[in-house]
Amino acid sequence: MAIVLIDGQEIEIGDDERLNGIQVAARAGVEVPHYCWHPGLSVVASCRMCLVETGKRDADSGEISMLPKLVPGCQTPARDGTVFVTDSEKVRQARAMVEEDLLIRHPVDCPICDKAGECHLQDYHFEHGRPERRADIKPFHSRRRELGETVTLFVDRCVMCTRCVRFTREVSGDAELMVVHRGAHEEIDVFPGFPLENKLSGNVVDLCPVGALGDLDFLYSQRVWFMKQHASVCAGCSTGCSIQVEENQDRIHRLKPRENPHVNQWWMCDEGRYGWKYVHDNARCLAPQQKTEGAWQPLDWSDAPAVLHAALSGENCSPENSPPKNSNPKKRRLAAVLSPFLTVEEAYLLATYIRQYDENAVLALGRIPQAGADESFPNGFTIRAEKCPNRRGVEMLLSALTGDVLSWESFLEQAAETPFDAVWITGGYPPVNGNDGAGEDVASEEEKSLATELPAGLASSTLIVQDLFDSALWRQADIQLPSAAFVERSGSFVNAGNRLQSFEWAIRPPAGVMTEGQLYWRLLDRDGLYNARRVLEDVAREHIAFAAASGEIPATGRDLLLNQLV
Amino acid sequence: MQATDPDIQWVEPPKLGLGERMYLPLFLQGLTTTTKHLVSAKVTVSYPDQEPEIDNPLIYRGVHRLNRDEQGRVKCVACFLCATACPAHCIDILGVESPWEDREKYPESFTIDELRCIFCGMCEQACPVDAIELTSLYNLTGRSREEMIFDKEKLLSVYDATKDKEPMKSAQLPPVTTPSTATPSTATSTSPTEGGA
User: Fold this and answer.
1) ipTM of this complex > 0.90?
2) What is the DSSP string of A128-165?
3) Domain covering A289-484+507-513 assigned CATH 3.40.50 in the classification
4) Stretch B68-74: mean pLDDT, rounded?
5) CATH class of B64-162
6) Is the pTM of this model over 0.80?
């Protein structure tokens, strides 16, 4: 057990922990300001903002001997007996000098800078800088150039921390960014003809401690202090990156990665980062409807329980829907397709609801959207080909409930053999953008056919379809229920690594939409509002596969295979 | 909130002295004020026949205007500081990239709901580029609510109408002699009071 002294405070660190001065100070609750150091990148110690006094305490005599000069905290390993002083006059002066130096060349165009409000330069200047400028320099207009499709560079705002350069070299591995010129003329740039266009490029904007790198998608869309942050999970692929949804008045403005050492570390891919646009798409289905005598009638949410009860139980059913051969009208054959976009809680509630009507109801896993192959980056970050967030969760729930996982294809075969009386199909799939340009064609043949024609075998059943966007299934349904997008749901996703992450809704669904959780909660006659936490407690208690999900789920999620023999 | 809440501070009414209990001295005090106003010069005017005189238009808080820069473009840089400072949430800005070389961002639309506005002047104080100012126009009327929502063109036209009578306040500030401060917002935050002095 190593003991490190931070400003006189003794901090214990583990023997196998390799921490630097900044990290140890953070454990003591002391913030050491830094620009260039980032836990996910290599150490360059170039910004000099984290300069601290350091020394060593002799193990036997307890005598402390300090180094005469300041050293960068990011580059100084903490060992047993290491002493850090972060609040001495010498350190304060060094920080003020660094701040002053950075501001000599800074445009100070904070009013129009997108980073203002979350800018390290602003924060540190406020906390550690001089109260006034000694040089008579006026704010000026920053030069700007585009680095790629998604990222723009405000050249003069840069403090040359080179985090972005190291990111493209160490994490994304494409090394598009570099430093050109020397000394005070240093600039970030790309080589002509080789723009920044890797699949993780958006991360350099998050990494930038100042406003030098701007996200063209987010640029000027909202001042950061107007937005509220909600911890969430990306639904773009089965990696399930921990993200932060930033919204203002139920409108998303950007997604940012949230640190999670078990899933995505500090990063997320551009696909997920910019993949939320469909949430605010005007084409979204917004009104529940039911088909009565061939014509669409608007369905009120308050009537939905009764209508769904009638559709599932067969009571008051119109003659063309009730099968004539079925002698016992009570014994109906039902099925539910649980989409991999449903949360574990929602899937569980729907399965419970369907099984109230038919305890042998067939439960199937929804279609799994696939695109390309898994893509891994040098540091281990993976973009999965499976473009859905909760395949594992629904699979584990299905095998717990039915002992088997029925795929969408086998479900269709089964439906074609013996048609079901009523089928409840859940969706929540982002829109298929397969028919624009051959080069950008990512949708599989199956997705395209599903968008146009109804799968055989479902035509004779009473169809209850819950989806985000219009499709052949949606049009053929007898009851249409609009679905909620991932940022509007509460619940848990289980990613490809069997890690369960819980999240709360970030924005309210558009008018007319009831989230799946709330609807199922109401259908099951539970009191009050949908409470994902309570449902997950039930799931964890009833099913051994989810045993690890009991109790409070940490922000980084919990491994469901923990303590399980597999 | 319960009566035992520690946040509640219970205050006793002050004890009345002999003079206060006699009531007469206070009565006379009040009557003196009344008499003083009876004989002093009148300050009321019979508006709208007669227009009131505004002492110092620079510190008067009337209808807003959006100033123009030397090239006649809107001076605003769409930083949203006025909208942030506004306690009535009456300012709505749409900031986009500017079409000009020397400017980064500008307001594509800038609307102030004059009916919502409480004319506190916080927007003027918050503005880092002296783009939004309150004029001395006080007789603000309209036939509909929509008419009272001023858009960018209307706010600029207020500037055109008042710029000769009320020049931009930043132009009247004494030249800066002390070293300029690090952030532009602090450098200009004192302009309304100094301009009025």
Assistant:
1) no
2) HS-SS-SS-----PPPEEE-SSSEEEEGGG-----HHH
3) yes
4) 93
5) alpha beta
6) yes
